[in-house]
Amino acid sequence: VLFSWFFFLGMEKLVACLYQRPNALCRLICFPWAGGGTSQLAQWGKLFSSSIEVSSVRLPGRESRLKEPFAKDMTTVVNEITSVLLKELQEKPFAFFGHSFGSYISFAVALHLKEKYGLEPIHLFVSGAHAPHSEAFLPIKSIPIYDAEDEDILTYIQILGGTPSELLQNEDIKKHLILTFREDLRVLQTFSFEKAERNIPFSCDITCFDGSEDKPHDLEAWHDLTSGDISFYKLPGGHFYLLEPSNEIFLTKHITRCIENAGL
């Protein structure tokens, strides 16, 4: 009993699942963007049918984990997510959705699950992200986050969009957002994935989404990472195209179709 109580506490801390569906055929685990929390993606639960249960991952340093120190590197993030979710992921099929920074985390978690436990998502949905072994990913690793002024980071956040401007009017919220974004970027810079010559890590299907007005991402290189099918969709909007209600409907319908066609 004690173990299951600790397990439950770990789940509550790490995962927001607003619409619990114990009888769902599949779990969709969502991974938010840099500086982000669970509020938007956890709400997706209400847009899906009863066959899919949606949860959103919450990293330390935000929301109910505000008092916890930020994760220092990608390995720490991956290990925590895996240890908390492993039992759930062994019980029934699961799919991952990640946006931007969240795409890289979802990939790293999926890779770890595959290499260590032989587990694989039935579908990987990535959004607004380069393939992690692509040349195009390298500039992200050289952003000088240690030296960057708060103002520079704030400008970058504003260029990306997705943060309501009224939040940025509040000094405390603005400060915390800049800090969270900085720390998430630091985690991203500790992540490296070298694709071995003949090794194709996944066999699941991968779908790549992107905003039509966003700076282009190297999506083609995702081809190298799975022996499954791969498809690409550009939706109207910038980096945060996915917050547009019409795009949200497209995404949730498309994800549902992919999961239901996986023949669970």
Automatic annotation (TrEMBL):
Catalytic activity: (9Z)-octadecenoyl-[ACP] + H2O = (9Z)-octadecenoate + holo-[ACP] + H(+)
EC number(s) recorded for this UniProt protein: 3.1.2.14
Signal sequence coordinates: 1-17
Keywords: Fatty acid biosynthesis, Fatty acid metabolism, Hydrolase, Lipid biosynthesis, Lipid metabolism, Signal
An annotated Gene Ontology molecular function: fatty acyl-[ACP] hydrolase activity
GO biological processes: medium-chain fatty acid biosynthetic process
Any Pfam family hit: Thioesterase
InterPro entries: AB_hydrolase_fold (IPR029058), TEII (IPR012223), Thioesterase (IPR001031)
Domain Thioesterase residues, every copy: 27-247
Family: Belongs to the thioesterase family.
Name this polypeptide is given: S-acyl fatty acid synthase thioesterase, medium chain
UniProt source species: Eudyptes sclateri
